[in-house]
Amino acid sequence: MKGRKPIGLRAGAVASLSLLAASLFAVALWNGRTVRAEEHRGVEDVDYASPLEVLLSPDGSRLYVLCQGSEEIRVLDAASYAVIKNIAVGRVPRGFSLSPDGARLFVTNSWDDTLSVIDTSTLAVEATWPVGAEPSSVVEDRQGERLFVANRISNDVAVLDAETGAEEKRLLAGRGSSYLTLSPDGTRLYATHVYPNPSPLRTGRENRTAPESEITVIDRSRAVVVDRMPLHAIAGVFHVAFSADGRLGVVAEYHPKNLVTLAHLEHGGAFEDTITVFGADVGKTVEVPLDELERYVSQPFGVAIAPDKSRIYVTSGGSELVTVIDVARLLRFIHEHPAPFVQDLSASANYVVTRIAVGLNPRGLTLTRDGRRLFVANRLEDTISVIDTRTDRVAATIKLAGPKNISVLRHGEQTFYTARYSFQGQIGCANCHIDSTFDGIQWNLEPDGFGRNIVDNKLLEGVKGTNPYKWTGTNPNIPTECGPRTEKYFWRSENYDDLTLTDLTVYVRSLTPRPNRWKLPGYQLTPAQERGKAIFERSVDKFKKPIAEYNRCSYCHSGLKGTNQKLFDVGTHKAIDNPGLLKATPLTEIALTAPYLHDGSARTLEEIWTVYNPEDKHGRTNDLTKDELNDLIEYLRTR
Is 78 inside any structural domain? Predict the structure, then answer.
């Protein structure tokens, strides 16, 4: 153990939990109930393991567990489950894989932008290589020549020399490139991404389009993209798995229903939980639902196919279960019925054979070579469920060494990811805030009027101290935002007790920004960023005319987080918007959160001023050249 912060504190953020303990009284007073300090469990800096992914060694003797919270790889004996060794890696590890011969284990450290290379004979880190922005998964080719690394922020797949780590090239992937899978024959790599690709220009409700995602297909030998398999109406694409014969591929995904008003959860909700199957057995790309009426499988993530291709297993982080699909029945259903199936809540009964309850927030999973045991990482319970696939029951639960008490932060994080509070268990906070961030989607939320006021989903990192909340500033604090508003309009029920809401509030407030990749060491600015800063702070325009204080960038977006927390009219209202003022949005990690403006109508930072600021209400910018706008954008990326 390294004594690092749990992932609830974003693995290294500075937070004083003793002060939080003292403030819990005030946090809970919003609804009139006094919370005594002794009522809270473990209000301290607790180091949880938070297992995210699991792998078996080629001979099946070892189980490797990627522990994101404690930032290490735990190596267990796959028979006795005894700990062999804990190996410290970098900050916030997110993905790992073994070389084909099992001699090396590669770990992506998403906050370090590095790759840890572990010698599996010595169980020691033998090298640490720099890679792209926020590496999330890694795969070595069968020849041992190249490594492919998916980078979430730079939206690409880096190609590295497998021996030296030297970068050869970058391949453009989908937005939020995150998960890589090698085809069974080793000729193709399949890359998925967690945020939808940029949408066409939208100017109103009638021009809104469904999100579009893809599976990026890479030719291994040439290291080039050879196909982009479209995933229509999908936003949030996670793990891919293949059958041993390569004829069937499966991907776990989210299907948001953001083009209709988020009004009646009981009428089908805001998400469909689906998989897409493809390959020779299917003949085409087909999306099929995992949900059925009154039984939803929120936040599908990990997927595995039995060695004999009899079953597909899918983890659902929000529902705390593993869905088991009969492959023969699934293929028969697809071939005998006309598509599409995604809106049919009776479809899954034709191929889902059971749902197995596991631990909290199950994510990665792996099968033994004979397919008789399935290991599932329960991220927010610090356990591994061992499922006997012959009985479809949990045969054992491996408890990873760690704290016995559940801290305030941990309980808040568990609440954030679970779907148990919503009507029929359909959605949780993490559906729209993937990995506690955002989803890149625009929604129609009926508190602002049915069919009106399309709003862009905002990033949660650094949200503490940026109240009031909502684009219109109508929620004064996080307890209001996460409490009665969420229960009424999202969960469709009143569920949180006072302690649960307090813990959820503490967790959301703990989410600090990830490292900013546009900042130089020591927070120095490049020449372009310096010029942009001067434009951001200017009080007169290029023609020496004074700029009114309320129309200066540095006035509305002042302070450490880039907001003075006041409301303004910046001339961005559309015909479907209700009248009123909009809050000066924080600039925290603004480079990552396209599209922009309250309704997501600006696809890029540049469009904020070139398309949506004709009257100079959103800062004085019409006197700026394109190069000057570029400088301004370069500075904003450092915020």
Answer: no
